[in-house]
């Protein structure tokens, strides 16, 4: 969607869903690679068909992946961007950016679920450090414990959108800021109203079952975001 809110359909596990997202007007698809806590995680070999076709630019999501393996992933998949989950060492970001200058590096910032305490100073410093390290985008998402294990993204839970907006205002990010975490066609309108992000990033909110997208949900989501984009253009 040109000149409007961008959309990334994440947790993509198959080429059919990547093409569905592209046909409906999404800007990016995301695929989780070698991440144990995600039921949508793909091996490097399983991800190759998605990234070799890339009907729209593809983002590879990784969590605590060794630097050598991350370099191999970039070489083999040639993603538009690599998205880091969890708290990433800024020196790692700098080295990877230098080694692969044509690959964008995106950083997830996982806030607690809405209603839980947020250490605002900690997250503000983290965001500032990531920007200084050279990330190309920030994604505010939700981290939560499931079955005794911390899960970073794909939780279906919202973080506090007011905190996201407060962080955006405090940092005045020079890079695009995406909103993720528990977003669906039912609440994407209020999510946009609360934060006015660069784009919306979601996974479980447009699924039929984990790992399989629902065409009607994607169509509904894109329709609402198009309407919001049109209204924003009228105001500007």
TrEMBL record:
It is an enzyme of class 5 (isomerase). GO terms for molecular function: phosphoribosylanthranilate isomerase activity. GO terms for biological process: L-tryptophan biosynthetic process. Keywords: Amino-acid biosynthesis, Aromatic amino acid biosynthesis, Isomerase, Tryptophan biosynthesis. It catalyses: N-(5-phospho-beta-D-ribosyl)anthranilate = 1-(2-carboxyphenylamino)-1-deoxy-D-ribulose 5-phosphate. Residues 7-222 form the N-(5'phosphoribosyl) anthranilate isomerase (PRAI) domain. Pathway: Amino-acid biosynthesis; L-tryptophan biosynthesis; L-tryptophan from chorismate: step 3/5. InterPro entries: Aldolase_TIM, PRAI_dom, RibuloseP-bd_barrel, TrpF_fam. PANTHER family: N-(5'-PHOSPHORIBOSYL)ANTHRANILATE ISOMERASE (PTHR42894). This is N-(5'-phosphoribosyl)anthranilate isomerase. It comes from Desulfonema magnum. The gene is trpF1.
């Amino acid at each position: 969607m040109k000149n409007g809110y961008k959309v990334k359909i994440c947790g993509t596990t198959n080429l059919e869903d990547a093409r569905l997202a592209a046909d409906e007007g999404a800007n990016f698809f995301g695929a989780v690679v070698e991440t144990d806590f995600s039921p949508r995680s793909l091996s490097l070999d399983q991800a190759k068909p998605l990234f070799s076709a890339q009907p729209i630019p593809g983002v590879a999501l990784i969590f605590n992946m060794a630097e050598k393996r991350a370099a191999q992933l970039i070489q083999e998949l040639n993603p538009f961007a690599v998205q880091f989950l969890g708290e990433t060492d800024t020196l790692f970001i700098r080295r990877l950016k230098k080694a692969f200058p044509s690959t964008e590096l995106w950083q997830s910032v996982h806030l607690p679920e809405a209603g839980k305490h947020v250490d605002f100073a900690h997250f503000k410093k983290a965001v500032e450090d990531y920007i200084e390290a050279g990330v190309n985008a920030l994604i505010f998402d939700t981290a939560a414990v499931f079955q005794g294990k911390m899960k970073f993204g794909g939780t279906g839970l919202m973080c506090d959108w007011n905190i996201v907006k407060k962080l955006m205002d405090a940092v005045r990010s020079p890079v695009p800021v995406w909103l993720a975490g528990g977003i669906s066609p039912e609440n994407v309108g209020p999510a946009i109203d609360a934060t006015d992000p660069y784009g919306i990033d979601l996974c479980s909110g447009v699924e039929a079952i984990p790992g399989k997208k629902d065409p009607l949900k994607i169509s509904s989501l894109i329709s609402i975001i198009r309407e919001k984009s049109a209204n924003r253009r009228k105001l500007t």
